[in-house]
Specification:
Elements lengths: L2 H15 L8 H9 L22 E13 L3 E12 L5 E10 L6 E7 L11 H8 L3 E2 L2 H9 L4 H11 L4 E5 L22 E7 L2 E2 L7 H13 L4 E3 L13 E2 L8 E4 L3
Parallel strand pairs: 5-6, 9-10
Antiparallel strand pairs: 1-2, 2-3, 3-4, 6-7, 7-8, 7-11, 9-11
Length: 261
């Protein structure tokens, strides 16, 4: 919907999470931000897991998805992997907040994912999701599952959908706005009752070349799997309730699969 808004968010995350040998530390991170122009150096203090104590780091963005897009503000969820010297491969999802400005939108805040510690024991459904190769999970979503804070309704729907699709998940619980963007209504994501899919059978939802029937069929399959709140790039007819399917500017780049319980 607003490609430059996503680009701005991604550039900030890439600048913070990539550095050559000797480039560690806050001062170096502030210099990398300054090179982008017009950004508050205080953002470095909000970078959290993007700035591990390592001599060198490389970050790659998997996806940039809207957490919300309005006329004058936006949330972009930047899903990334990161490799740092002396540490195992990692990554996170950053909820990047922006506000409208000229010549470019400005980044106002960073909210990296905070999945919590791994649980001592997981449900059978969680273990099955973690073992299912047709469910592709980025680092923050993987940590969400391991934390034990994702409802089984979500996990069982994932397993049902994986019988017919390969689903590439962007966000489950952490790294998503706490409230539905632009409202004071709590989002189902931080409660562990929703997940977003940005790619289906290798086809990005946002790609104009992706067959509409593939995305629409996936949305209907999600409803059949128990979701009472399915959002995507088109308004679908039917549904068990009047509001089971929805669309808006935010959901042109992914399918939201939510549950009331």
């Amino acid at each position: 919907m607003r490609p430059d808004v996503k680009l701005r968010a991604v550039q900030v995350v890439e600048a913070l999470g990539n550095w050559p040998p000797g480039g560690t530390g806050s001062a170096a991170a502030q210099a990398r931000l300054a090179a982008l122009g017009g950004l508050d150096p205080a953002l470095v203090a909000q970078a959290g897991p993007l700035l591990p104590a390592a001599d060198q780091a490389a970050l790659q963005v998997r996806d940039a998805q809207y957490g919300g897009i309005l006329s004058d503000s936006a949330s972009v969820l930047v899903v990334c992997d990161q490799w740092a010297t002396g540490a195992p491969p990692g990554g996170t999802t950053v909820d990047v907040r922006l506000s409208a400005a000229t010549p470019r939108w400005q980044v106002t805040a960073l909210h990296p994912a905070d999945p919590g510690a791994p649980a001592a024991a997981l449900s059978a459904a969680a273990r099955q999701v973690l073992a299912q190769p047709r469910i592709e999970l980025p680092p923050a979503a993987l940590a969400d599952l391991r934390s034990g804070q994702v409802h089984d309704s979500v996990l069982e729907a994932m397993l049902t959908l994986a019988q017919h699709y390969t689903l590439t998940v962007s966000v489950i619980r952490s790294g998503h706005p706490l409230d539905v963007f632009g409202t004071t209504r709590p989002s189902d994501h931080p409660l562990g009752r929703a997940f977003d899919v940005w790619r289906i059978d290798g086809h990005a939802v946002v790609d104009p070349a992706t067959p509409p029937d593939l995305v629409d069929g996936f949305m209907r399959a999600a409803a059949d799997a128990g979701s009472d709140n399915v959002g995507g790039p088109r308004q679908l007819s039917g549904g068990a309730t009047a509001n089971q399917f929805f669309t808006d500017d935010t959901h042109h780049d992914h399918v939201h699969v939510g549950f009331s319980s």
